Amino acid sequence: MTEIPRDTLQEQTFYEQVGGEETFRRLVHRFYQGVAEDPLLRPMYPEEDLGPAEERFTLFLMQYWGGPRTYSDGRGHPRLRMRHAPFRVDRAAHDAWLGHMRVALDELGLPAEQEQQLWNYLTYAAASMVNTEG
Ligand code: HEM
């Protein structure tokens, strides 16, 4: 009887299923191209160079979906609502943020089920980040 390699019996993480680091890098890179052009969002980012923000968000998403824990090694517990408190995240910022994310996600061309899973999370997370009425 042929032995089944142990690896094939182990469940893949969502991170692995969607293509690992490369996929998350592509997603967040495209997202930040949108942010860079956005008159509402761009001024919210404290640093002149969006590169470090892009890196933090990429590492966060990789970790969230089961990839390496590099984000927390460098940044500690995410505490995302707290980290967004200095920024005015109102409905307009929320909509703009999700709009760029929608474009970036579409361009990844993931299988429908994986795309839906990511989108559900992103819309839920974005709603929970709103901290200002109006
Ligand atoms: C709803 C609209 C949102 C706006 C306007 C917004 C805006 C921002 C801004 C201005 C920063 C600071 C940039 C930096 O220096 O890193 C930031 C950081 C960050 N955001 Fe958001 N954000 C939003 C939603 C989200 C969501 C939904 C997530 C997660 C799914 C997220 C994850 C992060 C992460 C991981 C960081 C870096 C945290 C750190 O380690 O300091 N953001 N965001």
From TrEMBL:
Keywords: Heme, Iron, Metal-binding, Transport. SUPFAM superfamilies: Globin-like (SSF46458). It comes from the Bacteria. Gene3D superfamilies: Globins. PANTHER family: TWO-ON-TWO HEMOGLOBIN-3. Belongs to the truncated hemoglobin family. Group II subfamily. It holds the Pfam family Bac_globin. The keyword Lyase does not apply. One of its GO terms (molecular function) is oxygen carrier activity. This is Globin. The lineage of its organism: Bacteria, Bacillati, Actinomycetota, Actinomycetes, Kitasatosporales. The keyword Ubl conjugation does not apply. InterPro entries: GlbO/GLB3-like (IPR044203), Globin-like_sf (IPR009050), Globin/Proto (IPR012292), Hemoglobin_trunc (IPR001486).
